[in-house]
Amino acid sequence: MIQETKKGIIYASLAYVLWGVLPLYWNIVNEIGPFEILAHRIIWSAVFMLLLLTFTGQLTMFKNATIKLFKNKKMFIAIIAAAYIITINWGTFIWAVNNHHVLQASLGYYINPLMSIFLAFIFLGERFSKLQWIAIFLAFVGVMYMTLQVGVFPYTSILLASSFALYGLIKKVVDIDAFSSITIECIVTLPAALIYIYYLSETDSVTFGMNASSGWLLLSGVVTAVPLILFSAGARRIPLSLTGFIQYIGPTIMFILGVFLLNEHFDIQQLITFLFIWAGIIIYSYSKYIELSHNRKKLIK
User: Fold this and answer.
1) pTM of this prediction?
2) Within a 10 A sphere around the Cβ of 175, how many other Cβ atoms?
3) Where are the bilayer-spanning segments (predicted)?
4) What are the Cα distances from residue 178, in Å, to 7, 158, 172, 226?
5) What is the pLDDT tens value at each position of the chain, 301 positions in all?
6) Cα(247)–Cα(114) distance, rounded to whole angstroms?
């Protein structure tokens, strides 16, 4: 049991480290437009996942999951919605990196868990402690401070946080394995990606194939799928509360890259915004720690 927990921590940590350094990869392929990159990301992710299912002997599992979806209209609609919502998240993230907004992306993924618990309050009827409400309030103050003092509403951060939180919420009702789910999500968004590539070719706007970035873009399927697979393997082995702590590895790495490697502008106003968000995260994490300790004591009794 302890060995499995250790494996879970390693897998989940690796997933968030890879997500954290992802801005470096999208910087390599920035000769190509962000939405063309997104289309290729969908295409090559679908190819990679189908090959992976074939070579790991999981095509039967995928077939059964697909049949299950077709028999349940609500689940089928939910998986399509989830696929396009995560596509919006991907597109926003790629656009943010290519337009030098890595810090905004980092802020978005810091806000994400607080956005998730807010959506759980609205849609799942979950109720929170005073500390958790304080954490949400501090995040709200941080966003409003940036809006009023900097004069810019952090649309990118909010869109990243809300789309990923909504994606997680929808996935709660889709009871199929992670491999099949990721593959189906890629397949249902594939027509939109192919139509967009066709449109670019008809308007002579294709940039894929004309530069060094194109070779790197062929790896986008691997870059997309591997962290998701690692996360799935880790999440099965460790408690959700522990996953909640580990997830801050990603935006922390993004923040460090944005400030120290990509030399993005970072002033006192942005620092104050981040301080509000970080304070909210610390309070939220502490509330989860108290909750976990309380549950352990109840189990012991």
Assistant:
1) 0.85
2) 12
3) 9-26, 38-55, 76-95, 107-124, 131-147, 153-170, 182-201, 213-233, 245-262, 268-287
4) 18, 26, 12, 12
5) 667 778 888 888 999 999 999 999 988 888 888 999 999 999 999 999 999 999 988 899 999 989 988 888 888 898 999 899 999 999 999 999 989 899 889 988 888 877 877 787 787 777 777 887 888 888 888 888 877 776 778 889 899 989 988 888 887 777 787 788 889 999 999 999 999 999 998 888 888 876 788 888 889 989 988 888 888 778 777 765 566 678 888 898 999 999 888 888 888 888 888 899 889 888 887 877 777 677 666 666 5
6) 12
Please name the amino acid found at residue 256. Answer: I
* Closest of 252, 242, 245, 257 to residue 295, by C-alpha: 242
Q: Give which of 121, 84, 72, 96 is closest to 23, Cα–Cα.
A: 96
Which single residue is written with the structure tokens 């618990």?
117
User: Do 256 and 122 touch, CB atoms closer than 8 A?
Assistant: no
d(CA 240, CA 176): 18
Q: What is the dihedral of CA 39, 248, 243, 20, to 10 degrees?
A: 40
Decide if 245 contacts 285 (C-beta within 8 A).
Answer: yes
Among residues 168, 173, 177, 220, which one has the least CA distance to residue 40? 220
Residues whose CB falls within 8 Å of the CB of residue 10, separated by 6 or more in sequence, listed in order: 234
**CA within 13 Å, CB half, 160:** 25
